[in-house]
Every structure is written in C-alpha cells, then in structure tokens.
Amino acid sequence: MVKTDTLTHDDDAGSLGERIKAEGYNFSNAGENIAEGFGTNDEARVMKAWMGSSGHKANILNKAFTNLGVGFGGGKYWTQVFGKPLNSRKSKRFARKRLVRE
Question: Which residues contact 85 (CB under 8 A, 6 or more apart)?
Fold first, then answer.
C-alpha cells in the first residue's frame, strides 16, 4: 500500500494468501483488515473504526484465527493480518523469526 499509495487488499505482490504464503506462513484460515487516514498515534481511533464495522469486527473476533500481525506504514496505512497455521510448531518458529520494520 505504501509503495503505490493505494488502500487495497491485493497489490503487485498478490492477494493476502499469496503474500503470506510467500513469507513461509502456511495457513488454514487467513483474514485482513486495512485502514487509511489514521496517524502514527491513532491506535485507539483505528481500532474503534474497525470495531464499528461489522466485517472488520468479525475478523477481530473470529475464533478461527489464532495468530495476528499488525502493521503501520507510510504515515497513514494500518493493517491487521489474521491467521491460523496448518502446523502450530512451524508457526511458533515463524513468529520468533519475523519482525519487519519500515
């Protein structure tokens, strides 16, 4: 999103599923929430907006998801990626190795 300055679930790196598989995360379930226009210190506001939207709230409360990644970039883009791994042991190793900072 930052690279193209466009709020989108799909970009030149592919769909959500394609992007997280490319990072080595093999999943049985995955979901994503994205938002634009909230600044660096707006965590509470973006969460309030997501919780005020039935689709975003459903992702947040979905008991099928057991892992969560959160990102902020470009001074205005927020994302939450939800997943449930196929193999929980591999997932724990993945989580310890992956930290991406802009």
Answer: 25, 26, 27, 28, 66, 67, 91, 94
